[in-house]
Amino acid sequence: MEIAWPANYEEDDLIQACVRRERWAQQALYEQYYGKMMGICLRYANGEEDALDILHEGFIKVFKNVNKFQPGTSITAWMRRIMVNTAIDFYRKSIRRRTEDIDQAVQLSVEDADAVSMCSQQEILEAIQQLTPAYRTVFNLYILEGYSHKEIADLLNITESTSRSNLVKARLKLKEILMSRNYDENGAAAI
Predict the structure, then answer these.
(1) For the residues 109-135, what does the mean pLDDT come to?
(2) CB-based contact 98:134 (threshold 8 Å)
(3) Span 51-110, pLDDT tens digits
(4) Which of 143, 168, 141, 166 is nearest to 152 (CA)?
(5) Which CA distances in Å does 164 have to 46, 106, 107, 187?
(6) SS3 of 19, please?
């Protein structure tokens, strides 16, 4: 069954229709924000299948809690926060946390920092997805979402030093992955 919705609806009208649990509005909201929210989920997931699980669980939370949305604020930011928290919950459910002390972390080298500039957005996303869930989650929360190590430690039930350690190791691993994509086995630049 195809669902029709009004041609000239405003965002506030759409939100209010979602509060009333009108199916056309839920579908419109899902379709309108699918791409942005999927991009967020992909950064936290092992792959597309996990990202879809996080996305769908996140949208369920959006629809259940849409009545808590404060009009006048950014719906994108509100939904983004829900997706990030859903990804963290997904991480907590599926991964046993390893605690690693910061003393074991190697200092990040700034040599070859240009590796990222030689990569496409898709290559960077694929590299992030190759990180272990612990490294990937800390990297995303710190670098992309702007959380502090204290906030990450609280969210993931780890120590601040573990958060710092995982970030350093994530950066090193990303550098290794991206460098290996840009250079062949002889060290020559790949074209």
Answers:
(1) 72
(2) yes
(3) 999 999 999 999 999 999 998 889 999 999 999 999 988 887 775 443 343 444 333 434
(4) 141
(5) 21, 11, 11, 30
(6) helix
Tokens of 132: 């272990």
Residue 153 near residue 162 (C-beta atoms within 8 A): yes
Contacts of 174 (CB under 8 A, 6+ apart): 127, 128, 131, 139
Task: Tell me phi and psi for residue 183, to 5 degrees.
Answer: -130, 140
Q: Give the helix ranges, DSSP H, for 45-159.
A: 48-65, 75-94, 121-130, 133-139, 149-156
Give the tokens for residue 73: 């604020």
Assess whether pLDDT exceeds 70 at residue 147.
yes
> What 8-state DSSP symbol labels residue 140?
I
Kind and range of the H or E run holding 182? helix 160-182
Question: What is the CA angle 112-117-120, rounded to 5?
Answer: 130
- DSSP state at residue 131: S
**3-class DSSP state of 183:** strand
